[in-house]
Design brief:
mainly alpha
């Protein structure tokens, strides 16, 4: 049982370590080129995670001629959820352009935090289901295999922690609070894993919907916020390079370690 507890905490550790990169930021603001690179990188990471961590596992869990239905439904529900949230978030008409820019950036960062947090919930459930298989004695799942999965999740969570904490610091939040918010986005993962272990029989049938829902939420933030922001103004090619790097790195992590 102790191995299971350690296992479900490993992915959370990856998020915390990634969030800790904020303490190495030397300036209050991120250089504009670096900011575009990070925005693009975040977009690439989230797109790759949506495909290899969420949509493909969701498809693998379904079978039959209409196996795509749960994935399509869950994906669209994730899009609709973020669309409604985007609509309902109150907008204050601030007087200065600078204030409006701050409000826009805060809203963008809030949605990024929310999307990554939502994304971590089904990942945690998936990890929990694997460890539940170990506990119930499923011969096809070993504790070593489950730990490897957890380590793979931790490695892919590392950049996710960084893409939350570092932009928050750039918005004027203290390093300590930025680290806290980045870390808290990952705390839902072990919680979701424990819930999945406790209610495995109930969670497994709807897991494809949950995975696809998270993918939809992430894609919405990528298309609505991250890519437009990384392409605005000068040096848009840096944002494009960031997208490519983030996508390839996360794809390699997901395929090699997922």
């Amino acid at each position: 049982m102790s191995n299971v507890i350690i296992g479900v905490l490993i992915p959370f550790l990856g998020t915390a370590l990634g969030s800790a990169l904020v303490f190495f930021m030397r300036k209050k603001e991120i250089n504009k080129k670096v900011q575009k690179l990070l925005l693009g990188f975040a977009a690439g990471v989230m797109m790759a995670a949506s495909i290899w961590s969420l949509l493909m596992p969701a498809l693998d869990m379904t079978a039959g001629r209409f196996a795509w239905v749960p994935v399509a439904v869950g994906f669209m529900l994730g899009i609709i959820f973020l669309l409604i949230l985007d609509t309902l978030v109150p907008h204050q008409h601030l007087e200065t352009e600078k204030a409006e820019g701050l409000e826009s950036n805060f809203k963008k960062t809030t949605k990024l935090v929310l999307a990554v947090t939502i994304h971590n919930i089904p990942e945690g459930m998936a990890t929990g289901v694997v460890f539940a298989g170990v506990l119930i004695g499923n011969t096809s799942i070993t504790i070593a295999g489950a730990i490897v999965l957890a380590v793979g999740m931790a490695i892919q969570n590392f950049p996710e922690g960084a893409i939350i904490s570092m932009p928050l610091k750039a918005e004027g939040i203290s390093k300590g609070r930025a680290f806290l918010y980045g870390t808290l986005s990952g705390i839902v993962e072990p919680i979701a894993a424990i819930v999945a272990i406790l209610f495995t029989n109930a969670v497994v049938p709807i897991l494809p919907y949950i995975l696809a829902f998270a993918a939809g939420a992430m894609v919405y933030v990528v298309v609505e916020e991250l890519i437009p922001e990384s392409q605005a103004g000068e040096h848009s090619n840096i944002g494009t390079i960031g997208v490519a790097l983030g996508f390839v790195i996360m794809m390699i992590l997901d395929v090699a370690l997922g």
